[in-house]
Design a protein that fits this description.
The structure holds two protein chains of two kinds. Chain A is mainly alpha-helical. Chain A contains 13 helices and two strands, in the order ααββααααααααααα. Chain B contains ten helices and twelve strands. The chains are: A mainly alpha, B alpha/beta.
């Protein structure tokens, strides 16, 4: 029995060390970042258009817009595609094909982001440069790369949601004379809505948080991105880009950018959790 | 339940073993931090050269402590020197006032020219300082304006805080600021990738790193070469520094002596840097 106790406490300690790291990270980010938010003013930090930290200008509006644009673009590509794959795997594909597709999609999640970035830089960017104009490093390139990167999230969770719809719903719709597609589109997908939304929100979180692949393909310029072909900087890519060389107020401003990102992600994750809970209840 | 217990145990053993390993490696590291290995950290421009010299030093002195070279950037290197997490900080920019005030000393180990580079197929061979300033500040936006093809200029710069960018701004941009339209990349290599693949691009980088995939242009009629820089004709030259906080440990001091020795300096010269000459 003593041994049982020992094991229990050992596991407890390990579990707490994981949570403790979250606490340490949170405290650290806020301790480093809050001073500059206070001295610069939160509002001018969020809405300033000029980022020139060595000149004391700290405005992250271009990066907020960059993050939103890139993420929105990624959803535009990733959600319809991911949903289509989920529906195909659950309802249309023969079992054998599903058994190939599902692990393949999961493999997609295991590819390191630097590889996505590299392929984006070597294939996508030149293609955009040649067909749509210089420089090719753009919001569009970032959105395309991220759109593919969020597919595993969108597919896996939407698939679960679609599978969780009770058999009786489909049977009922089919018995009323609805076609397979009508059943899916009018009954199954609406019933799986919460889960699908959760998958989208989690995909969004992944897209906003991605750094390496984005640094490589978006160009990182500091203007306000107005067209999909404009280069842009995102909140994460700017931190990744400048952290190595930053000191003093510059470093604090990067941590403050981290706080903004932190809040973004917390809001998204809570939303996803809420939607998932609704799915569980439904 | 009973059947699965052994597996649980295996898992638990694995988890505990992992925890133990982490704890142990932690101990080993903190113990070694005091005596063994010399740590250099900082500028990614200096890093490859420091690595080269560290290898050579290890070859010449088989018994000497290991020289461990890390990147991180000039500012990170200087901070590492301040906090004594590194024996020697590497910087590709001069110390700021606050940093010198913190009691740091800077030892130049070589000088490096910054080349302005364009795509090899770009017909422009030479630019004036005025034109470069115009291009990087965003006033000149088409290659036609500087005698090239009719193409919008794609400006590539380094991120703020970079030693290369700091030196470029200080020596060339004067009061002008680099346009927010410029693409930002976080290494010499990344700048080179863009300039070598986009005919409309212009960037700047360490001369030692320019290869034939990018074309260095003459600045005010002077081609960027090591000879021109040594002769004082090419203006864009900056120091590579070893940053020290107080007296270095004897082992670190010996490495610094080696880096400043004629043999090491001639290696740096061969790699495209300008040696420091004590006269």
């Amino acid at each position: 029995m003593l041994k049982e106790r020992l094991i229990q406490y050992a596991l407890l300690a390990l579990a707490f060390s994981a949570v403790a790291s979250l606490a340490v990270i949170t405290v650290f980010i806020f301790r480093e970042g809050v001073p500059i938010l206070v001295s610069e003013g939160l509002w001018s930090f969020l809405t300033g258009r000029s980022w020139a930290p060595t000149r004391g200008e700290f405005g992250i509006l271009p990066m907020i817009l960059g993050s939103l644009w890139v993420t929105f673009g990624a959803l535009l590509l990733g959600v319809p595609l991911g949903l289509a794959v989920a529906v195909f795997v659950t309802d249309y594909s023969p079992r054998l094909l599903s058994d190939i597709l599902r692990p393949a999609v999961q493999l997609l999640a295991g590819i390191p982001s630097v590889i996505y970035g590299f392929i984006g830089l070597k294939v996508l960017v030149p293609a955009i440069r040649v067909s749509l104009g210089s420089p090719g490093l753009s919001v569009l390139a970032g959105a395309l790369v991220l759109g593919i990167m969020i597919l595993p999230n969108v597919i896996a969770i939407s698939e679960d949601a679609i599978r969780a719809v009770p058999r009786s719903y489909r049977d009922g719709a089919l018995a009323l004379g609805a076609t397979k597609w009508q059943t899916l589109w009018r009954v199954v997908i609406p019933a799986a809505r919460s889960g699908i939304v959760a998958s989208i929100v989690l995909g969004m979180g992944r897209a906003i948080g991605e750094t390496m692949a984005v640094i490589m393909v978006v160009g990182n310029s500091l203007r306000l991105p107005l067209s999909p072909l404009d280069p842009a900087t995102t909140l994460t890519s700017n931190i990744g880009l400048e952290m190595g060389y930053a000191s003093g107020a510059h470093r604090q401003a990067l941590f403050a950018t981290g706080i903004v990102l932190f809040v973004f992600i917390i809001v998204l994750n809570s939303a996803a959790t809420a939607f998932r809970r609704r799915m569980a209840r439904a | 339940m009973h059947l699965t217990l052994p597996r649980h145990r295996q898992l638990l053993a694995l988890v505990l073993l992992f925890g133990l390993l982490m704890a142990l490696t932690g101990c080993v590291r903190s113990a070694s931090g005091q005596s063994a290995g010399i740590i250099l950290a900082g500028s990614t421009s200096v890093e490859p050269f420091a690595e080269l010299l560290a290898e050579e030093y290890a070859r010449l002195n088989p018994g000497a402590p290991v020289i461990n070279v890390q990147g991180g950037g000039s500012t990170a290197g200087i901070e590492a020197a301040i906090s004594h997490t590194a024996d020697i900080g590497m910087s590709s920019r001069n110390l700021k006032q606050a940093e010198s005030d913190a009691g740091l000393a800077a030892q130049p180990i070589a000088y490096d020219a910054i080349a302005i580079v364009v795509h090899p197929l770009n017909p422009v061979d030479s630019l004036s300082s005025e034109q470069v300033r115009g291009i990087f500040s965003g006033h000149l936006r088409n290659w036609r304006d500087v005698g090239g093809e009719d193409r919008p200029i794609v400006v590539v710069t380094r991120e703020e805080g970079s030693g290369t960018r700091g030196a470029f701004e200080e020596m060339l941009m004067q009061k002008e600021r680099i346009s927010p339209l410029a693409l930002r990349q976080d290494s010499n290599g990344a700048v080179r990738v863009i300039v070598s693949s986009d005919r409309a691009a212009i960037g700047y980088m360490s001369l030692g790193i320019v290869s034939d995939v990018a074309k260095p242009v003459a600045l005010d009629g002077v081609r960027p070469t090591v000879e021109a820089a040594i002769a004082g004709k090419y203006p864009l030259v900056r120091p590579f520094l070893f940053v020290l906080n107080g007296q270095p440990r004897p082992a670190a001091a010996r490495f610094i002596d080696y880096v400043l020795s004629p043999e090491a300096q001639s290696i740096l010269a061969r790699e495209g840097l300008m040696p420091v000459r004590d006269e």
